[in-house]
């Protein structure tokens, strides 16, 4: 595996030797001083160029970066549909384990470039990026919920939980897991992010997908979160659904109390009773109640 320094030398030497590349920016986790450093981190690089056309769909040109394990061209994909932006992107996973996500961006569109707090300027031939502030994860920190956001989160959590229960009773396992993991868990993670923000004065990021929650949650809450990840059985999925409710209830009440927001006790009580009822409902039941 090429070293970090070898990769930076490659990235910068390519830019220095090409007059059309006027600046090099790095963002992502390698530009975040608070992110753990390891060999899995991508090199998220932007080349600001005088003309993007010569670099667009140029599979010969990118060979300079190394032997490819797999390449993705998000701007040319149909599913997921491409995001309409200026420039072009190569997502390059190399055979030696390194990865570069390289964006080619035209200087003519610089006014449209969205600033990011996780930004390091590696090379700037023309002073395109003067006074770039020190890198931070400020743009990725959780923000305090408004009363409406808190209400919507609690409402959605208890609204979608019966969908998972319905799938479990019907023995539609993949549907039930989809509702549990895609919808119920989304609201749980949102509430946990607010809880961590509340505990840290909103100065610490839980990370993408909550990847730092193990370090940020109390051991009791972390274990409760682990209990929400079910095995491949109906009974384990039922227990995960109930575990989600227990954790959500505990954390949401703390968040609500902290911000002075009302927790919907009635919704919780009625939906939780319904979930328990559906779990015990005989398979040959002709009516729900």
Task: Walk me through what this model shows.
- The protein has 289 residues and is of the alpha+beta class.
- The protein has helices at 4-16, 147-170, 173-199, 213-216, 219-226, 234-259, 265-280, and strands at residues 21-27, 43-49, 68-72, 88-94, 99-106, 119-124.
- The N and C termini lie far apart (62 Å).
- The model has no long low-confidence stretch (mean pLDDT 95).
How would you summarize this macromolecular structure in one to three sentences?
The protein is an alpha+beta fold.
Provide the structure class: alpha+beta
What proportion of the residues is helical, as a percent range?
A: 40-55%
Strand proportion, as a percent range, falls in: 5-15%
Shape label: elongated
Span between termini: 62 Å
Topology:
Layout: H1 4-16, E1 21-27, E2 43-49, E3 68-72, E4 88-94, E5 99-106, E6 119-124, H2 147-170, H3 173-199, H4 213-216, H5 219-226, H6 234-259, H7 265-280
Parallel strand pairs: 2-5
Antiparallel strand pairs: 1-2, 1-6, 3-4, 4-5
Helix pairs in contact: 2-3, 2-6, 2-7, 3-6, 6-7
Features:
289 residues; six-stranded mixed β-sheet
């Amino acid at each position: 595996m090429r070293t970090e320094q070898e990769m930076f030398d490659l990235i910068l030497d390519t830019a220095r030797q090409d007059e059309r590349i006027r600046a090099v920016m790095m963002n992502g986790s390698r530009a975040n001083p608070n992110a753990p450093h390891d060999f899995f981190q991508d090199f998220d690089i932007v080349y600001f160029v005088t003309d993007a056309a010569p670099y667009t769909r140029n599979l010969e040109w990118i060979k300079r970066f190394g032997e490819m394990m797999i390449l993705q061209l998000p701007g040319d994909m149909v599913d997921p549909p491409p995001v309409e932006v200026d420039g072009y992107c190569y997502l390059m996973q190399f055979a030696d384990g390194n990865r570069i996500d390289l964006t080619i961006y035209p200087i003519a569109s610089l006014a449209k470039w969205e600033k990011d707090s996780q930004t390091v300027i590696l090379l700037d031939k023309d002073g395109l990026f003067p006074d770039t502030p020190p890198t931070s994860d400020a743009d990725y920190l959780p923000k305090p919920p408004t009363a409406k956001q808190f209400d919507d989160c609690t409402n959605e959590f208890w609204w979608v939980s019966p969908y998972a229960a319905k799938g479990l009773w019907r023995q539609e396992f993949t549907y039930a897991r989809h509702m549990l993991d895609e919808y119920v868990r989304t609201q749980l993670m949102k509430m946990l992010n607010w809880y961590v923000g509340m505990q840290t004065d909103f100065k610490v990021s839980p990370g993408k997908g909550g990847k730092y929650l193990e370090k940020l949650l109390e051991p009791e809450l972390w274990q409760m979160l682990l209990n929400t990840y079910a095995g491949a059985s109906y009974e384990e999925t039922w227990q995960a659904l109930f575990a989600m409710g227990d954790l959500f209830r505990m954390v949401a009440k703390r968040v609500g109390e902290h911000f002075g927001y009302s927790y919907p006790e009635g919704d919780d009580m009625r939906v939780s009773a319904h979930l328990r009822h559906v779990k015990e409902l005989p398979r040959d039941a002709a009516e729900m109640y």
